[in-house]
TrEMBL record:
Span list, region Disordered: 345-402
Coiled-coil annotated spans: none
Organism placement in taxonomy: Bacteria, Bacillati, Bacillota, Bacilli, Lactobacillales
Gene expressing this chain: nusA
Species name: Lactiplantibacillus xiangfangensis
Record text on subunit structure and interactions: Monomer. Binds directly to the core enzyme of the DNA-dependent RNA polymerase and to nascent RNA.
Protein name, per record: Transcription termination/antitermination protein NusA
Record Pfam families: KH_NusA_1st, KH_NusA_2nd, NusA_N, S1
């Protein structure tokens, strides 16, 4: 057994990267427990593993005392001096108590310890490998599905995708290849646990980085994303090079780049708008494809504004079930109240003091400009005011209008 054990330890160190000393320490601790469990001994014991020959010895450790009260833990000074005249009270003496049949127990214990260390090492390797993919896109294969999760094989580990991370209406079949976003990697007791998503906004960002080299290189930057997974998304982009059109770059020749992303997400509509540090212009861009006549900021709420649109485009600006306005609010970080031109005029006539506020609230014309700034992603998506002001019978989809 000794030669086999030494060979196994050498193999572990060379193939699995598990240091021999670590396994030996764990083995000695496990053998102490095995000895006490199998031989019903309560004394202090130590196990010594000979790393040269592979032999295992068990020693009972006893303290030298004047008067012995527990022979399992203590030895008299007189007996200690008989062994060696250098012993003094308080010294520890080791007596070998290795049972004759302890080799069988040692072999079983060694096997268990080695297997446990191998499992721990493999889990550590897998965790280290997949933790590097956190917040990145990987391609996996659908293995199975139940009422709670879709299980996706990523090679050495099986990732889980919860219901909230699954695209609405998307069907997952066994052996389907899908791109998923690694949202979290945990080192659980049963091994590494990887969570993936198809609905995370950052999935969209990573897809654009894959399809648009200018985004990957930093020439074009994604400033913010508002997404209702499986239905529609808005992406605000800006260019760090005045000679590069950020929207046209993301759309690609004949729309090929954005169409690739749409196909990957099974038809999720994309609105790509230009970001600018002129907040009024950015809000107008975010409500694309609706035409915006004016943006009036609320003097009592720095993150609130009223947007005026032509009467015939009120439904288009709000969007089906308020989706266009809701996504624009998420994208810009503003609470947007949409009013028709007629309704805005009536309000101004009834409250003349609002005219001055409107003029000071939006001095800049609604044109496209690109500068370097930042927009908060902290969004108030409440568009109840926008929906309440609509006088249309049934809002039409912004996508239908396009």
């Amino acid at each position: 057994m000794s030669k086999e054990l030494l060979g196994a330890l050498d193999t572990l160190e060379s193939e699995k990267g598990i240091k021999k000393e670590v396994v030996i320490d764990a083995l000695e601790a496990a053998l102490v427990s095995a000895y006490k469990r199998n031989y019903g001994q309560a004394q202090n014991v130590e196990v010594d593993f000979d790393q040269v020959k592979g032999n295992i010895h068990v020693y009972a450790v006893k303290e030298v005392v004047e008067d012995v009260f527990d022979s399992r833990l203590e030895v008299s000074l007189q007996d200690a001096l008989a062994i060696n005249k250098a012993y003094e009270i308080g010294d520890d003496i080791r007596f070998e108590v290795t049972p004759k049949n302890f080799g069988r127990i040692a072999a079983q214990t060694a096997k268990q310890v080695i297997m446990q260390r191998v499992r721990e090492a493999e889990r550590g390797i897998i965790y280290d490998e997949y933790s590097q993919y956190e917040n990145e896109i990987v391609t996996g294969e659908v293995e199975r599905q139940d009422n709670r999760f879709v299980y996706v094989s990523l090679g050495k580990v099986e990732a889980v995708m919860g219901r909230s991370d699954q695209l609405p209406g998307e069907t997952y079949r066994i052996h389907d290849k899908i791109k998923v976003y690694v949202s979290k990697v945990e080192n659980a007791t049963k091994g590494p646990q990887v969570f993936v998503s198809r609905t995370a906004p950052d999935l969209l960002k990573r897809l654009f980085e894959q399809e648009v080299p200018e985004i990957f290189d930093g020439i074009v930057e994604i400033v913010s994303i508002a997404r209702e997974a499986g239905d529609r998304a808005k992406v605000a982009v800006r260019s760090n090079n005045p000679n590069v059109d950020p929207v046209g770059t993301c759309v690609g020749p004949k729309g090929q780049r954005v169409q690739t992303i749409v196909n990957e997400l099974h038809g999720e509509n994309m609105d790509i708008v230009e970001w600018t540090d002129d907040t009024a212009v950015f809000i107008a861009n975010a409500l694309n494809p609706a035409e915006v006549l004016d943006v009036i900021f609320d003097p009592e709420n720095e993150r609130g504004c009223t947007v005026v649109v032509p009467d015939y485009q009120l439904s288009l600006a709000i969007g089906k079930r308020g989706q266009n306005a809701r996504l624009a609010a998420k994208l810009t970080g503003f609470k947007i109240d949409i009013k028709s031109e007629t309704e805005a005029s009536d309000i101004m006539e009834a409250n003349p003091e609002n005219v001055a506020q409107a003029e000071t609230g939006n001095e800049a014309p609604v044109d496209d400009e690109t500068t370097d700034s930042e927009v908060s992603d902290d969004v108030d998506s409440d568009v109840a005011d926008a929906e309440a002001t609509s006088e249309a019978d049934e809002p039409t989809s912004a996508d239908d209008a396009e």
